[in-house]
Specification:
This protein is mainly α and about 180 residues long. About 90% of the residues lie in helices and about 0% in strands. About 0% of the residues are buried.
Amino acid sequence: RRLFFDTHALVCLLEENGFTTQQSEVIVSALVKIMDTNLDMIYKDMVTKVQQEIALQQVMSHIGGVKKDMIILEKSEFSALRSENEKIKLELQQIKKQVMDEITKVRADNKLNLNLEKSRVKELHAQQDRALTQTDRKIDTEVADLKTMLESHKLDNIKYLAGSVFTCLTVALGFYRLWI
């Protein structure tokens, strides 16, 4: 195994920083053992190039087998799926047609109901307009009657006033003649 650092330089560095030669060598040997252990663990998980080639060939053969299986499935299963899919498409078209027919019926019913409601509202408005017109006529008739009555009372009051004035004048002229 190769180490990727200079162990002697590390021993010298440790000695310069206050470690004894024996302490420095023990530390470096411990580090080397740790690195060896770590490298052993890493090498156990690693694959050699030959092993990788073998694994690649195995994967490629599996892929070839899957391709063959897919071709067979495509011929048998996919044709069945296609026919099933066609059946479903036909059913969907029929359902779509039924739904469109129902929508058309509902629209027609709604239009009919809407037109009926419009005619009912128009009839109601016409009845209200007739009632208002009759009420206006009654009010106009009553107002005209009241005006006529007011004019008649006014004329009566003028007659009584004129009669009272002439009576007072007559009485006054009678007294005036009596004293003269």
